[in-house]
Each structure stands twice: as structure tokens, then as C-alpha cells.
Amino acid sequence: MRRITAGLFVSLDGVVGEPQDWHFPYFNDEMGAAVGAQLASADTLLLGRETYDSFAGAWPGREAAGGEDAGMAKALGDARKIVVSHQDLDFTWRNSEQLAGDLVDAVTELKQQPGATDIAMSGSPSIVQQLLAAGLIDELHLLVHPVALRSGKRLFEEGAPIPLRLISAQTFTTGVLHLIYTSADASGSVGYDDAKVHLADVTGNPA
């Protein structure tokens, strides 16, 4: 089964909305390498419409310009791009198509298709939220920026808990944390009564 990796810019207080308004002061070569590595591991991109429109409005021009990021632009252009939208879409960027049918069912089927490389997501927080809740994301790459925005769309809204396990952590010179999580089995978590016993053992006082 193919893996899905999802990369998101996130503030210290969990905001993922409108990253173009607060993200760029923290961008450097370290972050560029992290984002590039996540996308380069995939031959398929799964994107929400707004993220796709942003990519399609920028990367084809960068490929044509032949600048230092032309290689990345070509790789994104060559990748299969699947767009999640309730609207009928017309595509001008090559290798683009619209996801058909129910999101969870269609992505489950997509993961079962042959292929040795990953399916990558960038941004698209609403889609990430739904696929996380369905247990379909294998790696969640969070670039946590050292800023508290105090308003905006958050990655984790109200709902059932989603247990995660940290598999990698890196601190950039800007103070950004690059955290990679995978799913965790909640059945192995410590219960409240066990936690009270552990706390009593550590402190020597009844919990």
C-alpha cells in the first residue's frame, strides 16, 4: 500500500490558515530542503483546490523561467496531480485531474494502487483534517513557526482524539521546529488510574 505524507506550515498555537501572511519571514534553506525532500519522495500530489490554484499559478512559470528552482518546478509539473474539489475544474497545468467520488473512499483506493513512491500533500488543511480522522495519512510533517497568531483556522478542531507518535524532530536556525509524526495506537496509552499510580511513585505523595 502506498504511503501518504502531508506537510503543513503551522503557528505555535496551531493555526494553519493563510500561511502567506505570516510564514515567509521564517523561510530559509533549511526549510526549503525539508519541504523539497517531502515532495521529492512522491510521484503523486493530492491537493485541495486553493493549494492547487496557488501551485498552478506559480510553478509552471518558474519552470519556464529556468531559474534555480526550475528542477523542482519540472518535478512538480511531471508529477500526477489530483485535486479535491466539489466544483468542476478546468486544468491548464499538465498531469492534473480531479478526484472523483467520496474523499475517503477515493483516497483509500488511491493508496492501494501500484507504486513504490509516496503520495504527497502540501497545505490543504481541510483535506488533511479529514484524512487524519480517517487514519489515511502515514506521515504528518509539521513546520512549527515560533509565532502565536491567536486567530485563524487551526489544524486540530473539536472532535475525537487523534493519537500520534513523533518519529523525527529538528530545530532550524530560525526557531522553526520540523516535526514528523506517524499514527499511534491509542490502545497502548496509559489510563487515568495508571497515571495516578505513576505520579505517586515519582513524587512519593498520593495522587
TrEMBL record:
Gene3D superfamilies: Dihydrofolate Reductase, subunit A
Coiled-coil features, chain-numbered ranges: none
Protein species of origin: Rhodococcus oryzae
InterPro entries: DHFR-like_dom_sf (IPR024072), RibDG_C (IPR002734), Riboflavin_Biosynth_HTPR (IPR050765)
Highest taxon above the source species: Bacteria
Name of the featured protein: Dihydrofolate reductase
Limits of the Bacterial bifunctional deaminase-reductase C-terminal domain: 4-177
